[in-house]
Amino acid sequence: MNTIRLHQPILDQGLTVKQAMMRRHSTRDFFSKPLSLDTMSEVFWAAYGVNRSEGKRTVPSVYGLYPLEIYGFTAQGVFKYNPEDHTLTEISDKDLRAKSGSQDYVAGAPLDIVIYSNYDKFSTGNSEVDSAVKGNEDRLSLLDAGAVTENIYLYCSSEHINVVERAMVDKNALSDALDIPASSHFIVAMSVGYPPIPA
Ligand SMILES: Cc1cc2nc3c(=O)[nH]c(=O)nc-3n(C[C@H](O)[C@H](O)[C@H](O)COP(=O)(O)O)c2cc1C
Predict the structure, then answer these.
(1) Can you tell me whether residue 94 is helix, strand or coil?
(2) Is the pLDDT of residue 50 over 80?
(3) Ligand 1 centre distance from Cα of residue 42 (Å)
(4) Are 100 and 189 in contact (CB under 8 A)?
C-alpha cells in the first residue's frame, strides 16, 4: 500500500483567526480539480496534526487519548491519516467518495473526510483514566470531533476553500466498504474543495 508523506504547514499565510471565524460558512459546491498536496497536508494537519514536540495535537483531547481516526476519500482512493508522522496510508485504490455521504455533491468533491472514533483508545490500563472515561466514549468522541471539524472549517475559511460538515451518511454501508473494525464508530463526515470557477 502507498504511503504519502504530507508537507509541513506554512504558518505565516492566511487570515487571522477572527477574520476566519467571520467568514466561516458551509458550501456545497466544489471545483472538481484535486486539492494540491500542500492543501491536503494543511487540511489534515489542521484536523488532528501534531503541533508540539511531545506529540500533542492541534485539538484538545481528554487525557490526550486522541481516539479519532480520520480518512480521506479522493478520486485516487481512500487514505488514513497518521498524525504521528504526518502521512497518509492508502487503504483502497478505488474511488469510494460516493459511499461517504448520501447527498449528490459528495461524489464530486475532491476530498471527502470521514471521522471515526476507535473506542479501544479509551482502555488505557490506567485505572484512574479508564474509570473517568468508561461509559462516556460517545460524548468524549463527539467533543474531539467538534474541535476537529471547526479546525477544518477555520482553515478552509482562511484559505478560501469550500467545506461542509455532514451527518447524512449511510454509516453501515460506509463501514462495510472500508472494512472498519467493530471498535471504530462513525462520527461525522465533511466535503472539501476549491470553489467553482465563476461562469
Ligand atoms: C453535526 C452537523 C451535521 C451536518 N450535517 C449536514 C449534512 O448531512 N448535509 C449538509 O448538507 N449539511 C450538513 N451540515 C451543515 C449545516 O447544514 C450548516 O452548518 C448549517 O446550515 C449552518 O450553516 P453554516 O455552516 O453556513 O453556518 C451539518 C452541520 C453540522 C454541525
Answers:
(1) coil
(2) yes
(3) 22
(4) yes
C-alpha cell belonging to residue 123 = 482502555
Distance from C-alpha of 93 to C-alpha of 59, rounded to nearest angstrom: 29
Index of the ligand 1 atom closest to the CA of residue 28: 11
CA distance 144 to 13: 26
Does the Cβ of 185 fall within 6 Å of ligand 1?
Answer: no
Which uninterrupted H or E stretch holds 175? helix 171-178
Q: Is the CB of 25 under 6 A from ligand 1?
A: yes
C-alpha cell at 168: 447524512
Across the chain, how many H-helices and E-strands are there? Answer: 5, 7
Question: Which amino acid type is present at position 164?
Answer: V
**Which atom of ligand 1 lies closest to the CA of 25?**
26
Distance CA 194, CA 174 (A): 25
Residue 90: pLDDT band (50, 70, 90) is very high
* Grid cell of 28 as nine digits: 456545497
Q: Is 22 near ligand 1, meaning CB less than 6 Å away?
A: no
- Amino acid 157: pLDDT: 98
By alpha-carbon position, which residue is closest to atom 9 of ligand 1? 166
Using CB atoms within 10 A of its CB, is residue 144 exposed (0-12), middle (13-18) or buried (19+)? buried
